[in-house]
């Protein structure tokens, strides 16, 4: 039997209408009254005594662009709100900390880069975070404080190269590891480096085996297959794609992998980015007002059977939650296990090179001496 319960929705417009600046982020409001009626339904799938039910939330909210401390403050308010409603796992959008530079071209054309574009990259680089680093420590502390498993999209700074990265934390406040986007899309390749096979983790936790692929990585069948082979059960898909066609990909992955899919996207208006001329949406700036929606969200939670449990939401900033009956995974795998009984390894196989790659390797004389003594 299915029961329908109201979702937890929190909209940022309240803060703005009350004159609060974007630095304060999103004003969190109480759950809807019974008379308001839900904007969308969360489905309690039901469970039995042998299956675990996990309360999961995807966050649909905007970065406070170029202001990482304020973005972390906002993340904590959102995390606290999700935890207050019983969430055990919370997933944030792609590039939530550091920002997704939608509409920017960083002054690049073939054969030329502008001084303004280079300065824009300097500011973007300054808003990124080191991993490990103080911001990672703070995120870990948040996860421990609110007793939730946290999946957070960040822009990672490694020297002077940036990566679009997802960080994982457990409910005890421990940093588990990261996934770096292995294939940035289109203009993203100008500003982000490429991850390698060493950061495609799936973490075994009491709430399920958790992994992540970012945005259009989810359209890479071999990457998905690697994650399925690692046993992913809760497949997190932070994204910047708000198109309706994105929903088809999320449903397909849930069915293909026999896993829960949790996709989190930002909901942004033009006013969530710095005003021109500091920040310009190339080719569209003249058509935008401060209230223009530049990313419409579409965050969603889908079951292994392809049922939409919550979302997609295109209305505003929101916390979108559902109860995940992990017993549904076994029921789905009975029909189709892509790396199990439905595979044909004697015909089709995949090799994943999961060692870290480095452009420079140092072999010191002292290390050679120590090795020779050991032998």
SSE inventory with pairings:
Blueprint lengths: L2 E3 L7 H5 L24 E3 L8 E8 L7 H17 L4 E3 L16 E2 L2 E2 L1 H13 L6 H13 L2 E10 L2 E9 L5 E6 L7 H4 L10 E4 L2 E5 L8 H9 L4 E3 L9 H12 L2 E4 L3 E3 L23 E4 L2 E4 L5 E6 L4 E8 L1 H9 L29 H10 L1
Parallel strand pairs: 3-4, 4-7, 11-12, 12-13
Antiparallel strand pairs: 1-2, 3-18, 5-6, 7-8, 8-9, 10-11, 13-16, 14-15, 16-17
Family: Belongs to the carbon-nitrogen hydrolase superfamily. Nitrilase family.
Pfam families: CN_hydrolase
Protein name: 3-cyanoalanine hydratase
What's this entry about, in short?
The chain is of the alpha+beta class and 375 residues long. It contains nine helices and 18 strands. The N and C termini lie far apart (66 Å).
The major β-sheet equals:
6 strands, mixed
- So what's the overall shape? globular
Poorly predicted segments: 1-35, 37-49
Number of helices in the DSSP assignment: 9
**How many beta-strand elements?**
18
Report the order of strands and helices. Answer: EHEEHEEEHHEEEHEEHEHEEEEEEHH
Radius of gyration: 21 Å
Between the first and last Cα atoms, what is the distance in angstroms?
A: 66 Å
Q: Mean pLDDT, rounded to whole units? A: 87
Secondary-structure-derived class: alpha+beta
The largest beta-sheet arranges its strands as: 9-8-7-4-3-18
Percent range for β-strand residues: 15-25%
Proportion in helices: 10-25%
């Amino acid at each position: 039997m299915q029961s329908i319960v109201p979702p937890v929705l929190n909209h940022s417009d309240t803060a703005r209408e009350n004159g609060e600046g974007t630095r304060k982020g999103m004003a969190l409001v109480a759950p809807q009254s019974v008379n308001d009626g839900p904007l969308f339904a969360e489905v309690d799938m039901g469970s039995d005594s042998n299956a675990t039910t996990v309360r999961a939330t995807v966050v649909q909210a905007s970065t406070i662009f170029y202001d990482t401390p304020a973005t972390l403050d906002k993340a904590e308010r959102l995390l606290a709100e999700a935890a207050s409603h019983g969430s055990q796992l919370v997933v944030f959008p792609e590039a939530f900390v550091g920002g997704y530079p939608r509409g920017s071209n960083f002054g690049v054309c073939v054969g030329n880069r502008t001084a303004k574009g280079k300065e824009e990259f300097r500011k973007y680089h300054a808003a990124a975070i080191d991993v490990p680093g103080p911001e990672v420590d703070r995120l870990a502390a948040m996860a421990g404080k609110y007793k939730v498993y946290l999946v957070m999209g960040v822009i990672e700074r490694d020297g002077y190269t940036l990566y679009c990265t997802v960080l994982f934390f457990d409910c005890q406040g421990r940093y588990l590891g990261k996934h770096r986007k292995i294939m940035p899309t289109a203009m993203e390749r100008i500003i982000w480096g490429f991850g390698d096979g060493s950061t495609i983790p799936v973490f075994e936790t009491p709430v399920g085996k958790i992994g992540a692929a970012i945005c259009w990585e989810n359209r890479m069948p071999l990457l998905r297959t690697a994650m399925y082979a690692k046993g992913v059960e809760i497949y997190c898909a932070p994204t910047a794609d708000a198109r309706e066609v994105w929903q088809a990909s999320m449903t397909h992955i849930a069915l293909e992998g026999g896993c829960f899919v949790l996709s989190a996207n930002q909901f942004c208006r033009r006013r969530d980015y710095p005003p021109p001329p500091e920040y310009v949406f190339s080719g569209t700036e003249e058509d935008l007002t401060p209230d223009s929606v530049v990313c419409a969200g579409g965050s969603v939670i889908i079951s292994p059977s392809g049922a939409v449990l919550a979302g997609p939401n295109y209305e505003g900033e929101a916390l979108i939650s559902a109860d995940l009956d992990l017993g549904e995974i076994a029921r789905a795998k009975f029909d189709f296990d892509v790396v199990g009984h439905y595979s044909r390894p004697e015909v089709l196989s995949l090799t994943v090179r999961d060692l870290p790659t480095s452009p420079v390797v140092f072999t010191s004389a002292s290390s050679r001496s120590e090795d020779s003594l050991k032998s």
